[in-house]
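Q: I have two molecules that I believe assemble together. Could you output structure tokens for the complex as a whole instead of separate predictions?
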Amino acid sequence: MKVGLFVPCYVDMFHPETGIATLELLERFGLSVEYPVDQTCCGQPMTNTGCEREAAKTEELFVRNFEKYDYIVTPSGSCTNQVRHNMTAIEQSDAVKHVRSRTYELVEFLHDVLKVDAFPWAEFPHRVALHNNCNTLRNLRIASMTERREEPFSKPKALLKMVKGIEFADLTRPDECCGFGGTFSVFEEGVSAKMGQDKVTDQLKSGAEYVTSSDSSCMMHQEGCARRMGANLKYIHIAQILNGARA
Amino acid sequence: MTAELHEELTDPNADQLDHGAASSRPLKSRISEPQPRGAKVHGNRPIDQSEAANRFIAATEHEAMHDARLWDLRQKRDKEMHGIEEWEELRDLASGIKEHTLSKLDYYLELFEKNATANGIKVHWAKDGAEHNAIVLDILRKKGVERLIKSKSMLTEECGFRHFMAENNVEVIETDLGERIQQLDDEAPSHVVVPAVHKLRTDVAGVFAKTIGSDPDNADAHYLTECQREATRPLILSAQAGMTGGNFVVAETGTFVVCTNEGNADLSANTPPLHIASIGIEKLIPGLDDLAVFVRLLSRSALGSPITQYTSHFRGPREGGEMHVVLVDNGRSARLGMEKFWPGLKCIRCGACMNTCPVFRRSGGLSYGATYAGPIGLIIDPTFNVHKYRNLPYSSTLNGSCTNVCPVKINIHEQIADWRKTLAGEGEISPVKKVMMKAAGEVLASPVVYRASLPLGRSALRHLPHFMLYNKLNTWGRKRDIPETPKQTFNEWYRKNRKQQAEGGKS
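A: Yes, here they are, computed for all two components at once.
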């Protein structure tokens, strides 16, 4: 199984440790993982702003970088959603279709494809609040949502439960969007920041020491709000916890 | 009236003031936070929703109350949902019934007309708001009506009905309490179900004090409701005509159904001898069996109550009276022809998408500057005016909560994204967004240019690169800290630590 690693632009730039943890974690399972060094972005900023034509060249580059892999794995559900459901600015060739259907968010990949049943190296004796990115939650269906009448399930929680010592903190509004929303965070800055502050307040009230998520983008926004508010909360990507980070 | 006293007089631990001191010291002002007003409308200029939203957020008492109140409705809705085992099945059914009816709308409209006419209802057809208003005015003039009582109707908001009637010297009295508050304050409804939900009780006390002479310092809900009742009942009793909307129009029986909680639609319809119902053509459903599905979903989704207090079936005029139904298109048949946007016509106006929307709860419905606010508004408003409402589809994080609470399964968040594409394709996008996205597209399409644009290792740059910020004003940093830039990117780390693979991974 040949795996291509996609490290989203903001992870590459601001959270390289998330990329490193993802790579090391996949390697622990004996996979041959490659990171194509000429990668940039999935095209989501342009597509979400309605500028599909402007996304075309970025999407083409993405497909050129990843078409040779059996699976493309990325520590971001939001980018996965873009590739799987919205990469429509370019002609849908076989290569494009292959890349779109083979791109997985890390938690999905571990849970559904590798069917991992243990992380013996992982131990995280802390109180942790889990945040699900909205695309990951409602479009990739990584967990059940409170809006629907369905059997509760959570793939990230199922994985985290295998980590020794971890304790979960419950939020009062677990599914509420944190207000990042990609370009929304800059174009609609006021509402975005207010939503972020409310999310941080909920996390604080839960007694969480750490917040974790399979998406760094939401956490970058939340952490920015938390620091400005002087909130004592730490943000860590789920890949780091599963890879055995010790706080 | 609650007495205004110095805090020292009511606090047992404070140094007590003697009578002289208490009466000579000025009372602390108890002016509450002024109500934030809605979007600024400048003719056909694109509405700036975020400007109005920021003012709403700055009014912290209003924002906190609004968010808590609507979130409470959402939670009550969830509780009701869990009480119905077949909830998701009901949503499928409701969506299917609406799709079926919309696909044969001409047939069902004619069937309704035939059956309603046989029941003694006079059916009128209006292609737009102006035609609707003219038809209603004509009916009223023929009967010499000077005062009309009406219940809540979003359609009449679309038509600018109240203002039109005022220009033509017909007094319109809203009978829904929230709608009456909005009428007296000369504001549009901010929500399709709870039209004055953006107001605090103190705001209402202010409006009533000015318009019906209540005590400005008494913001007790029972007192205010009672004052309104006393002021409005005589007007209701002396009105010569009543108007309602219609939640569902049943083709097979030629009847229509109005759902309310205050019973005000029944007052409007039954007190005067003339009843006019203004109804959008998308409200059709085939039969009474279909109605049962919607009745189970409507109030549970809207308010988290099992059913509305009143579900009134109207099937014909009373003896000696008249009943008219005005079926209004006002852009609906054009919307039906829109490949991506026709499912918006399935909407039953429950407001669940508004209650769940994190942006709506923090912005207030009037920030949208349009008849329909919140998620459903973002996908309906541009069909009325693409230029004026071109920014509205950006007032969403695309989080998808709306789609999943919608009782008729409208793919709201997907349509919001589709509207962005459609509007940008028609050139209806702000130049700032267009320029930034073009630049971002160029940078991200080239690994070399992209790598060169990164701030790392060059200086302790405090600003994000422009392609991520899209904005030289650094709006990110206004209320949020900017993430620290680490010593090296993942890309640089990889090239150093996985040299062999880095060679293999070159495309």
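A: One point stands out. Chain A touches chain B through 84 residues (CB under 8 Å).
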